[in-house]
Amino acid sequence: MKKIIFVLCYSVVALSIFAYGKTTESKQLSYLLSGQYAKKMTEASQKLEELDTAVQKTLLFNEKEGFDEAREDIWRLSSDVKNSVGSLPVDRGFSNAWMNYLGRLGNYAKEADRLGDKEEYHQAMTKASFNLREMADEWQVATRDLVSGEVTVEGWQNQLDSVDVDHDWDEMRETVKQYTESDFPLTASESNALKKKELQMLTDQKVTREEAVEHFKTLFPEVSHSSVVVENSQPDAPYPFYHIRFAENGTVGYIDITEKGGHVLSFLSERSFSQKVQSYEFIKDQGERFLKEAGYEDVVLEEARENDTSWHFVFVRVEPVYGAKVFSDAIHLKVAKDTGGIIGLDAMEYIQKEELDRQPITEQNWETFFRPHVTVVEEELAYVENDRMDQRLAHYLTVTLDVNDQIDTYVVVVDTETEEVIKTEKQP
Amino acid sequence: MKRIFKGILLGFILVGSIYTISPIQSEAFSNQQIQRGAFGDDVIELQARLQYVGFYTGTIDGKYGYGTYWALRNFQEQYGLPVDGVAGEATKQKLIGVSNYDEKFVKRNIEEGNRFTHYGNQSLDEQVNKGAGQNNSPQVPAKYSNEDIQLMANAVYGEARGEPYEGQVAVAAVILNRVEHADFPDTVGGVIFQPGAFTAVADGQIWLTPNERAKEAVIDAINGWDPSENSIYYFNPITATSKWIWSRPQIKKIGLHVFCY
Q1: Other C-beta atoms within 10 Å of A115: how many?
Q2: Residue A55 touches chain B, beta carbons under 8 Å
Q3: Is B30 on the interface with A (CB under 8 A)?
Q4: Does the pLDDT of residue B223 top 50, yes or no?
């Protein structure tokens, strides 16, 4: 009996010590997290003020150096505040709208030297400065409880999740959205990019469910005896499509086909693979033959990557005027290594093709354009999207940089008309 | 008796000679050509042999990128072979003839994630630094790192391991769509660890070890597949508590998840 009482007492004491330790540890972690969040929120407030000052500074100068310096500050600070907002526990809808505004503000400042009319810049930034001050005040009120330590992180999170929140985050979100629309509206190129993404220009005839299934079975005869389940996209989808799921002999997968025109958006199948490996040439030929038979006749192979069970290929459209590759009109293909069968196709970007403008081609002397230890090993023409989302004809160069016998390879994309370097990317 | 003895001796010599001159299969290339974009054991051997003779100075990782390409072209040029950056039969035979390949050493160090080299002019033991190297990771477009792949695989496994493969690729695609979208952080890590963004981060399931299926789903998404049709959110209608998420325009349902803008 004594022994039982001893064991029980011992267990109760041990459990109490353990529970006390855990509670203390949990509290310590909670304090630590509260401290970190409070610090970040305070920093975000300070940086918001600095950002407003930088915006105002750009309104001071006509002189280029002072103007450019202040613009760089806007770009840096807007990026800093965006990062802070992205790592803080605030209302999700608000943080998304706020990050969008900050990103657009930074990009606008970065691109300002391309604006012919400085008056336009001044008008936009005057509004932005006013709105930033309003938001800085709102931000301080909204984050006061956590910054002052009046609520714990848990309490703060509960407030955010609660239906009856203390602070009206919805109103803040709507306010920021309005600021974005008024201060930095979408450019024509951004609208075009959105139209392409949402297939807004698709005018083809509607295909029926049966026709969509038939199209799937014609394209992929190896799974043509599958049992299929067809669903329509949800009513909110910007472009309606059929979602077809299939299963046949251990292979399962899906294909999405647009209602307008019956275009394949994407197809992916999953199955087990054997140890057999076909040659690269055979696999590549299978991919190219499939694309030709499927009607994708104006594409060329751009990239090939082997992985454990398959090859991933990227094909891009070649436009007829300059014979330039159009990187935004791409098709992705996944081919099995064991059989050479097509197990994946993504042609979404190819459906609504880019509208391309003709563009002058200025001859370049690459020897003077690059430093002496750089060699251009391949040169071709391509349409590439710049950071303002314009499709630009460009020299698409593969260059090597040879330093201390270490050869690194880069892709450098140079606008054929303006000589702007659109992209520089180190190749693996 | 002498004849029998001579016959046996001759037999031994013949078998011994065949054994000596024939290549050891486990240490030799397969019969496939090796070119840019290739991946796997053949590329590991190619890089190790090129490094053995001093042509390749990069990491032995089984990925045939530009570093391997230029090294092979230089090798072909030096040995009077057609310079095309493709390791065909003649190139492979020449490489085998002029280099050694310690497969066990190379594979062990890749497996253990060590940083190592395979130069022929120094002891292999002196060419290993424990850790700090890279495990054999898959090939993806240049802008994604091994850390991105690992983190995304963890997120996909933590969020959607019970979902169909299509649903797992869609979750990975949502992460990538957010990275490209103005409303979200610009990095994979920033998106995944944005407070409140993913349940798996909040409940710690993101730290479970992902399986091969989750990794494959991430590779497909990174290589361009998006079964979510450009979605930037998804939720489980059975468990979702947020009123706000129901206000998002819905695109498609995959498994238990509704994908939306």
Answers
A1: 12
A2: no
A3: yes
A4: yes
Q: d(Cα A386, Cα A357) in Å, to the nearest integer?
A: 14
CB contact under 8 A, A400 and B195: no
Could you say which residues from 78 to 97 on chain A have a Cβ atom under 8 Å away from some Cβ of chain B? 82-83, 86-90, 92-93, 95-97
A311-340 residues touching B, CB cutoff 8 A: 311-312, 314, 330, 332, 334
- Which three-class secondary structure string do you get for A218-274? HHCHHHCCCEEEEEECCCCCCCCEEEEEEEECCEEEEEEEECECCCEEEEEEECCCC
Give the pLDDT confidence of B67-92 residue by residue, as tens digits.
999 999 999 999 999 999 999 999 99
Cα–Cα distance, A386 to A169 (Å, whole number): 35
Domain B25-132 belongs in CATH node 1.10.101.10: yes
Residue range(s) of every CATH 1.10.101.10 domain in chain B: 25-132
* CB of A164 less than 8 A from some CB of B: no
Residues 95-114 of B with CB under 8 A from A: none
Angle at A143 between CA B180 and CA B236, to 5 degrees: 50
How sure is the predictor about B19, in pLDDT bands with cuts at 50, 70 and 90? very low
Which of the listed CATH numbers 1.10.10.2520, 1.20.200.10, 2.40.50.200, 1.10.8.1000 matches domain B146-260? 1.10.10.2520
CA distance B173 to A330: 17
Nearest CB to A93 within list B169, B244, B252: B244
Instruction: Write down the ipTM of this complex.
Output: 0.89
The 10s digit of each residue's pLDDT in A122-173 is: 888 999 999 998 888 888 888 888 888 888 888 887 777 776 666 778 888 8
Where do the CATH 1.10.10.2520 domains begin and end in chain B?
Answer: 146-260
Whether B252 and A233 lie within 8 Å, measured CB to CB: yes
**Most confidently modeled range among A48-52, B168-172, B234-238:** B168-172
